[in-house]
Amino acid sequence: MSVTRDDVRKVARLSRIAVPEERLDELAGELNGILGWIDQLNEVDVEGVEPMTSVVETKLPMRDDVVTDGNIQDQVLANAPRSEHGFFVVPKAVE
Q1: Which of 29, 43, 44, 67 has the most C-beta neighbours closer than 10 Å?
Q2: Are 89 and 83 in contact, with CB atoms under 8 Å apart?
Q3: Cβ(77)–Cβ(86) under 8 Å?
């Protein structure tokens, strides 16, 4: 699969990113390079290799799984440009 100028233009439009026409070829090349690396990774034989999250084995401290709201709603909403009834108010994002 190869990424074309039209693919870059479409992704930019869907993600609402302004991409100048003169950069479309450059970005298509970069994305094709990334996809090439992914193809190389897919060729690696990982049969029998245990999944890991770190090269150093560590133990994370355990704590009780307790549901809490944090009791800091006012502090959190203080950072919001706008809130109503204890919730963030954001602009409509779906057309």
Answers
A1: 29
A2: yes
A3: yes
Count Cβ atoms within 10 A of the Cβ of residue 23 and give its class: 0-12 exposed, 13-18 middle, 19 or more buried: middle
- pLDDT tens profile 42-74: 999 999 988 888 888 888 889 898 888 788 888
Task: List the domain boundaries for the chain.
Answer: 5-42
Task: Enter the tokens of residue 76.
Answer: 């959190």
What Cα–Cα distance (Å) separates residue 48 from each residue in 25, 41, 45, 66, 67? 40, 16, 9, 36, 38
pTM of the predicted protein model: 0.52
* Conformation bin of residue 52: beta by default, left when phi > 0, alpha when psi is -120 to 50: beta
